[in-house]
Amino acid sequence: MPIEEWVKTLEDGRKVKFTNETLAGDGSFITAQIEKHEVVYSIVLDKEKNPLSRHEVESRFKAELSKK
User: Fold this and answer.
1) What is the pLDDT of residue 48?
2) Looking at residue 47, what is its pLDDT?
3) Rounded-to-integer distance, Cα 29 and Cα 14, Å
4) Which of 5, 19, 40, 41 could be a cystine partner for 33, CB 3.0 to 4.6 Å?
5) What digits encode the pLDDT tens for the residues 10-45?
């Protein structure tokens, strides 16, 4: 399954690595990890349109990434 990875720098200077993996059928497995943190936020999405855009992936983690 294709996996897309990218790094984005947030407004506060933190870097976040995002991944977007297309699953068999109509699903996606997406993750976000803040640089130098052990915690990885992950979501399995069923019946999502594929492929998700980078903006769509990033917006799914907006609440978690706004915490410091």
Assistant:
1) 66
2) 76
3) 23
4) 40
5) 999 999 999 999 888 788 999 999 999 999 999 999
Structure tokens at 23: 């699953």
45, two tokens: 């999405």
Strands 15-23 and 3-9: antiparallel
In this structure, what DSSP letter does residue 35 have? T
Three-class DSSP category at 64: helix
CB pairs under 8 A, 24+ apart, for 54-57? 54/4, 54/6, 54/18, 54/20, 57/18, 57/20, 57/30, 57/32
Whether the full predicted model's pTM is greater than 0.85, yes or no, is yes
